[in-house]
Amino acid sequence: MSxxxxxxxxxxxxxxxxxxMYCLANFTDIKSVALLEKYDTIAPLNSKGECNSxxxxxxxxxxxxxxxxxxxxxxxxxMPIKYALKYNYxxxxxxxxxxxVLGVGEKECDLxxxxxxxxxxxxxxxxxxxxxxxxxxEPNVVFKDHKSERSEKILxxxxxxxxxxxxxxxxxxxxxxNNAKTISKDDYELHLNCNVKEIKKIGDKFxxxxxxxxxTASCVVVNAxxxxxxxxxxxxxxxxxxxxxxxxxxxxxxxxxxxGKVYMVQNDKLPFAALHGDPDILANExxxxxxxxxxxxxxxxxxxxxxxxxxxECLKFDxxxxxxxxxxxxxxxxxxxxxxxxxxxxxxxxxxxFVKEARKIVPSLRIEDIKYxxxxxxxxxxxxxxxxxxxxxxEGKIVTNDGIIFNMTPSPGxxxxxxxxxxxxxxxxxxxxxxxxxxxxxxEFFE
Length: 447
Hints:
Pfam families: Mqo. The chain has 447 residues and is an alpha+beta fold. It folds into two domains: 1-54 and 168-237 and 400-447, FAD/NAD(P)-binding domain (3-Layer(bba) Sandwich), CATH 3.50.50.60; 242-394, no CATH class. The chain contains twelve helices and 22 strands. The strands form four sheets. Strands 1, 2, 8, 9, 10, 11, 21 and 22 form an eight-stranded mixed β-sheet that branches. The protein has an eight-stranded mixed β-sheet with strand order 5-6-4-14-15-16-13-18. A four-stranded antiparallel β-sheet has the order 17-12-19-20. Strand 21 (396-399) and strand 22 form a beta hairpin. The N and C termini lie far apart (47 Å). The model has no long low-confidence stretch (mean pLDDT 93).
């Protein structure tokens, strides 16, 4: 087998791995980096535009964010926007739409009103939209048909214009790799069809056995989604953690029903995104509804059965895991949510069940107006901590302080790719005694 050494090897060519490669090239003195992707293209899985909500999560219309979380996320969300503007990617893979979170009924409308008063400090562009205002900017959330209006009280909070809301993170991943290779005059390489089978550390080197070679590295960052924990377990790390892969699916309307993003109020008990409707930038802005949330015994959704067997190896099922599952199902909200989302995946039943939920956004929606979005949606790993006995929501990250990092679930999703990269950079340069130009980094992303 051939063998080549790099200072840093990144496993996983999605948005997080691509952003890290770009940041290493642009802000550090690291001279040799390899990005390894097991499939034949950059961002083939969750970062692919068809596999996520294409949303820049700023915290303004995500009602499960606390004030402090929103304040942090608002800053993080500017980073991919700054990057896209620097390279003139607006209206290429980054777009501006109106956006809002819609409250339906007295309780949700009161929540929207109170959040507006508090959160406008962070987001001064926020507006409140009552039913009359919504008739002009998002008429399909108001009218049941061409004559009658919905009877419930509704109130929305959001931004009408001027905010970037939408990114094709797959296209952005490609740009990040290309720009990293352009910036660096050193040894920055992309290896496609490069499946890492095993990682071992011998002395001060990591040995990565792939499908056709052995690569060595001084430092390794694993950005492989659900497989990050799988590889960590192989190396003996984080044995107390397990993963519950949750697949998100979507439905397409047969026409454009919404002018912008319309989110629903989030149930705080649930870690999954509330149902929303968006103009899909990869489907001529047809309205796409979703995501659903289905627990799936696979680490990857569309790629054969290998990840099915790997899921059970990664789950490490025992009495502690069983108790966590039982405790989750005892909660009526969670149990009903899981049952409902299971129905969304069953042919013939799925559309009937889903349209009832989607009518909360578009009350005139009919069964014949939607179709299941085949091959759309990805898998997000939810981390289970056996020590705490809980399903842990939010970011999943294992920092070993031994030259290898495992990133599982970035928060808030792809939007946080540069924030995740910054954290990784700090660990990498400390471990390798390298230099990170933080002033240049801050100038690019925050000024």
